[in-house]
């Protein structure tokens, strides 16, 4: 789990070398909602997430990335 303080935060994750990002996913505690979930502009291996913490209290998210090889 990754902590998300109020009002929110941005995160990025990357696939290993030779792989491309296909999709990102997350699970959240409380009222943490996504603001951004998209492939990175910088590299096809990365995915970026932006979260908004609506109640402004500390919460957690579990973020993940689906990667593919030879695409």
Notes on the protein architecture:
Strands 1-6-3 form a three-stranded antiparallel β-sheet, with no helix packed on it. It has a three-stranded antiparallel β-sheet with strand order 2-5-4, with no helix packed on it. It is mostly beta strands. The protein has no helices and six strands. The chain starts with a strand and ends with a strand. It has strands at 2-4, 8-14, 19-28, 32-39, 46-53, 59-69. A hairpin with a 6-residue loop joins strand 4 and strand 5. The model has no long low-confidence stretch (mean pLDDT 91).
In what range is the share of β-strand residues? Answer: over 45%
Order of helix and strand elements from N to C terminus: EEEEEE
Rounded to the nearest angstrom, the distance between the terminal CA atoms is 30 Å
Strand order of the largest sheet: 1-6-3
Name the overall outline: elongated
Poorly predicted residue ranges: none
**Percentage of residues assigned to helices:** under 10%
**How is the biggest beta sheet arranged?**
3 strands, antiparallel
Class based on secondary structure composition and strand pairing: mainly beta
Q: How many E strands?
A: 6
Radius of gyration: 13 Å
* Alpha plus pi helix count: 0
Q: Report the average pLDDT across residues.
A: 91
Offer a concise description of the structure.
This protein has strands at 2-4, 8-14, 19-28, 32-39, 46-53, 59-69. With 71 residues, the chain is mainly beta.
Main attributes of the structure:
mainly beta, 71 residues, three-stranded antiparallel beta sheet
Helix and strand arrangement:
Blueprint: E1 2-4, E2 8-14, E3 19-28, E4 32-39, E5 46-53, E6 59-69
Antiparallel strand pairs: 1-6, 2-5, 3-6, 4-5
């Amino acid at each position: 789990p990754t902590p998300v303080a109020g009002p929110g935060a941005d995160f990025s994750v990357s696939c290993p070398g030779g792989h491309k990002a296909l999709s990102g996913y997350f699970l959240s505690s409380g009222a943490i909602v996504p603001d951004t979930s998209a492939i990175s502009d910088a590299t096809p291996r990365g995915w970026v997430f932006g979260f908004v913490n609506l109640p402004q209290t500390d919460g957690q998210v579990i973020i993940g990335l689906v990667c593919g090889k030879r695409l």
